[in-house]
């Protein structure tokens, strides 16, 4: 049973999804539902013995193309909508034990192309207003399946975090005629000390306003709004800088580094968003080798994050761990 | 700063999106990629930046 309920106090939608209480939770590797189905073994969700990259509708979705009947009727200020939308899972590899960071840059390049495909298709659906591509990695951020995968939520509304960014970008555009995120990238590149990695198409940095010790943003240098605006070379450059940043994350504490990866693209409601700018945000919860950053009173109850570190110092620490990317095939 | 990828890796050839329907009606899309070496052997093949799959049926 699922539905969308509106929070009139915060002005945002939330989903109820009671069926998700029963979803698969940290199964042993031999019974991973996201591995390929091998002959003679138990049938997984993927009915083929091998794959490269796969996307499919989530078995336990909070948003559905054929939505549920809401459990409760709207009542004046308490608005309720069917949970119409799409939830997809994107499998990065048939190898249960790999991670995005451990994959070669060529594989990450393939994934960039798959993300582009999924964005283009979901963006074209008339009941979708926002396509959100993301990954939850590690038990520290609540994963229930260790198999390397990301997710896509296609919402029938523009979610709150993106809506706030859009509003700020529009204000900045009206005030200056420019793009706020272009200006942030230019400022970070000029300051240099918060830059983690850079190539012709993208910059990776721990922003001035980072809320987490290793919060890293990867932003297109060219003013563009979505995956579908990338050139072929920019697809490669994005794969390269993702490989560099993710590999550096794993070197910080010599562990498979947990994170939330959030891809912020323009909405899909058909309106113009030239004032917005494609970027990827990483929220890693680790602040030391054995301590996590929790969302406690000030963060969860008031919205003010307290960062126990300086972005300038953490960026320099992370930058030292960045290594060049080598492609296997050369011309 | 980085070692730029070779041209054959950076062309905009989209993957082939092979779509199947699972027993419970959900769709599943297998992305299949033409390797750079294969493309180099097929220089006349047209390239497109748009998805190669047919329109969604969701």
Q: Which pair of protein chains has the largest interface, and what are the residue counts?
A: A-B, 49 and 35 residues
Number of strands of chain B: 2
Number of helices of chain B: 1
CATH architecture of chain A: 2-Layer Sandwich
Radius of gyration of chain B: 15 Å
* SSE order of chain B, one letter for each helix or strand: EEH
Strand and helix order of chain A: EEEEEHEEHHEEEHEEEEHH
Instruction: Identify the strand order in the major beta sheet of chain B.
Output: 1-2
CATH top level of chain A is Alpha Beta
Seen as an oligomer or otherwise, the chain set is heterodimer
At the fold tier of CATH, the topology name of chain A is HIT family, subunit A
N-end to C-end Cα span of chain A:
54 Å
| Low-pLDDT stretches of chain A | none
Strand content of chain A: 15-25%
Inertia-based shape of chain B: elongated
Q: Give the mean pLDDT of chain A.
A: 94
What structural class do you assign from the helix and strand content of chain A? alpha+beta
Strand content of chain B: 15-25%
| Structural domain count of chain A | 1
Question: How would you describe this structure to a colleague?
Answer:
- The complex is a heterodimer of chains A (331) and B (58).
- In chain A, 25% of the residues lie in helices and 21% in strands.
- Chain A is an alpha+beta fold.
- Chain A has a single domain, classed as HIT family, subunit A (2-Layer Sandwich), CATH 3.30.428.
- In chain A, strands 3-5-7-6-11-12-10-9-8 form a nine-stranded antiparallel sheet, sandwiched between helices.
- Chain A starts with a strand and ends in a 12-residue tail after the last helix.
- With 58 residues, chain B is mainly beta.
- Chain B has a domain of 34 residues.
- In chain B, 9% of the residues lie in helices and 21% in strands.
- Chain B is built from one helix and two strands, in the order E-E-H.
- A two-stranded antiparallel sheet of chain B has the order 1-2.
- In chain B, strand 1 and strand 2 form a beta hairpin.
- The longest helix of chain B is centred in the middle third of the chain and has 5 residues.
- The N and C termini of chain B lie far apart (42 Å).
- The N terminus and C terminus of chain B are likely disordered.
- Chains A and B meet through strand 3, helix 1 and helix 4 of A and strand 2 of B.
- Strand 3 of chain A pairs antiparallel with strand 2 of chain B, so a sheet runs across the interface.
């Amino acid at each position: 049973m699922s539905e969308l309920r509106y929070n009139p106090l915060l002005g945002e939608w939330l989903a109820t999804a009671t069926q998700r209480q029963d979803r698969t939770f940290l199964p042993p590797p031999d019974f991973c539902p996201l591995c390929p189905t091998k002959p003679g073994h138990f049938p997984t969700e993927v009915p083929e013995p091998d794959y490269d990259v796969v996307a499919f509708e989530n078995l336990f979705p909070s948003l559905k193309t054929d939505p549920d009947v809401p459990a409760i009727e709207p009542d004046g200020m308490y608005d309720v909508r069917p949970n119409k939308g799409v939830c997809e899972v994107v499998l990065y590899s048939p190898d249960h034990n790999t991670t995005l960071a451990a994959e070669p840059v060529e594989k990450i390049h393939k994934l960039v192309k798959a993300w582009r495909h999924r964005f283009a298709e979901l963006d074209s659906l008339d009941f979708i207003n926002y396509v959100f591509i993301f990954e939850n990695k590690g038990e520290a951020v609540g994963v229930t399946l260790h198999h390397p995968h990301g997710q896509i939520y296609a919402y029938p509304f523009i979610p709150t975090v993106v809506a706030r960014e859009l509003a700020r970008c529009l204000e900045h555009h009206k005030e200056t005629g420019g793009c706020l995120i272009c200006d942030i990238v230019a400022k970070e590149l000029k300051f240099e000390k918060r830059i983690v990695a850079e190539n012709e198409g993208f910059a990776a940095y721990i922003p001035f306003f980072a809320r987490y010790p290793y919060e890293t943003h990867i932003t297109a240098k060219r003013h563009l709004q979505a995956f579908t605006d990338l050139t072929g070379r920019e697809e490669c450059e994005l794969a390269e800088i993702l490989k560099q940043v993710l590999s550096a994350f794993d070197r910080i504490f010599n562990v498979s580094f947990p994170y939330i990866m959030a891809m912020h693209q323009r909405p899909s409601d058909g309106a113009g968003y030239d004032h917005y700018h494609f970027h990827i945000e990483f929220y890693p919860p680790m602040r030391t080798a054995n301590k996590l950053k929790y969302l406690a009173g000030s963060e969860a109850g008031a919205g003010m994050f307290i960062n126990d570190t300086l972005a300038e110092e953490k960026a320099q620490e992370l930058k030292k761990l960045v290594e060049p990317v080598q492609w296997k095939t050369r011309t | 700063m980085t070692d730029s990828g070779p041209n054959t890796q950076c062309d905009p050839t989209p993957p082939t999106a092979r779509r199947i329907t699972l027993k419970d009606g959900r769709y599943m899309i297998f992305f299949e990629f033409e390797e750079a070496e294969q493309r180099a052997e097929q220089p006349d093949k047209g390239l497109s930046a748009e998805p190669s799959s047919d329109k969604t049926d969701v």
